């Protein structure tokens, strides 16, 4: 295991940002819910305690025993984490007279303290708290204040334990990254060696160690970034013992089955294309409910993987392209998050497959997956491909799915995506696609009345898909796409543009 920082999560909306800031310093870190705090191991060089929506004054609030870490490795409490350490040691945490959300400025700083080294007076910090530390326990020293908050940061005498009331992980804390560097590099002594290349080398070794010398691995490949990067890593580790399976679920983009299979062959990967369109259409027949469709698609995927695995003698592993946000969401502090959408690849692989799961990208964020793909020389067109959901056009056809609707949508979608490329807009957009709406509208074409379907164009900007803004595409581009769809795709007579952000909408419509 690489040296790492452990982040104990108390449910803050910013916990993932702490992880991102540490990884940007080329230091590996993991988030664990406070309810599953791991024991200290040699590779854990420091611990960060996250913020929380809870108040330490609430008897129900998280209050774990931290003695296994304190004084043994450096600990940094952020907001709730700082309040918790203060209150566990006899300090007073009280409701603040004014709740503080937003920007503040550091008025005094103890620059001789290693956490505060090189931070500047007047530096902007981001606050988000309703409680405040009124009195510190004996042996705790203030190392920074703002005009409103005396205890903006503290240090525990004689041990590398620190607390800060503000949020260094938020970019609005302009010197937050410097503070994190002071903690992670200077105080914890991490050597900043966690680079994409390092990840590739150590993951290939780990895969070789885990997967037995004669074992074969089945990997569902989609043409998307995650599964393609997983494929290259596994291929480097076990070569031809990797068996990729690319399923045509009848819900792919126009001509995608052929073109993706082709690009995998070019990469030297051992991939079988399985055309299961009819099985998917049969499973979807008559189902209009979004969750019903997702479940039917998920089930059919599993059936196909199961059938294919049985054809490969010695198949002992099922590899998945699972990435870090999937993992974090399923171990959230408040219990598994409410189901908004059932992702087709999560949950419910049947026992009888008898395959063990291997997930080489489990620890990475999407943009980190792209960096690893870059280090593995994944071709640009796959690396920068927009994400595409496994259930494909099945969740972009509102209402029931038929081969005829798939055909209409494939043609409209191809015009939109080709148009983005033509206008040089494809890589400015994080994801784009077309939705086929379950309504008809009246139009007039060549003096004749039409009564045909409506499609909605969807394009978003985002970093990781967790939040997204609708893309402000140029009007002349939208006009071009709208004209072309209405003129060329018989059966569609109206095009609208979706101007909803996530939240409160989501990227896909179902
Ligand atoms: N048509 C398919 N055939 C086989 N496996 C698939 C197919 N579609 C999806 N999968 C599997 O489901 C997983 C999740 O799909 P998902 O779309 O989240 O990831 P991806 O396709 O690898 O990347 P991206 O998010 O960039 O599209 C994939 O990693 C892959 O293992
Ligand atoms: O592989 C997948 N299986 C799914 O079931 C699924 N549902 C949504 N998505 C993709 O996830 C991102 C966020 O989508 P939403 O804002 O619609 O939840 C977007 O990139 C979506 O395309 C899926 N990907
Ligand atoms: N961001 C936080 O960690 C907030 C901690 C606590 N809930 C407060 O309001 O002070
Ligand atoms: Mg995909």
Automatic annotation (TrEMBL):
The keyword Ligase applies. SUPFAM superfamilies: Adenine nucleotide alpha hydrolases-like, Class I glutamine amidotransferase-like, GMP synthetase C-terminal dimerisation domain. The keyword ATP-binding applies. The active site is at residues 79, 167, 169. Its EC number is 6.3.5.2. It catalyses: XMP + L-glutamine + ATP + H2O = GMP + L-glutamate + AMP + diphosphate + 2 H(+). GO terms for cellular component: cytosol. InterPro entries: Class_I_gatase-like, GATASE, GMP_synth_C, GMP_synth_GATase, GMP_synthase, GMPS_ATP_PPase_dom, NAD/GMP_synthase, Rossmann-like_a/b/a_fold. Keywords: ATP-binding, Glutamine amidotransferase, GMP biosynthesis, Ligase, Nucleotide-binding, Purine biosynthesis. Pathway: Purine metabolism; GMP biosynthesis; GMP from XMP (L-Gln route): step 1/1. GO terms for molecular function: ATP binding; GMP synthase activity. Residues 194-385 form the GMPS ATP-PPase domain. Gene3D superfamilies: 3.30.300.10, 3.40.50.880, HUPs. ATP binds at residues 222-228. Homodimer. Catalyzes the synthesis of GMP from XMP. This is GMP synthase [glutamine-hydrolyzing]. It comes from Hymenobacter metallicola.
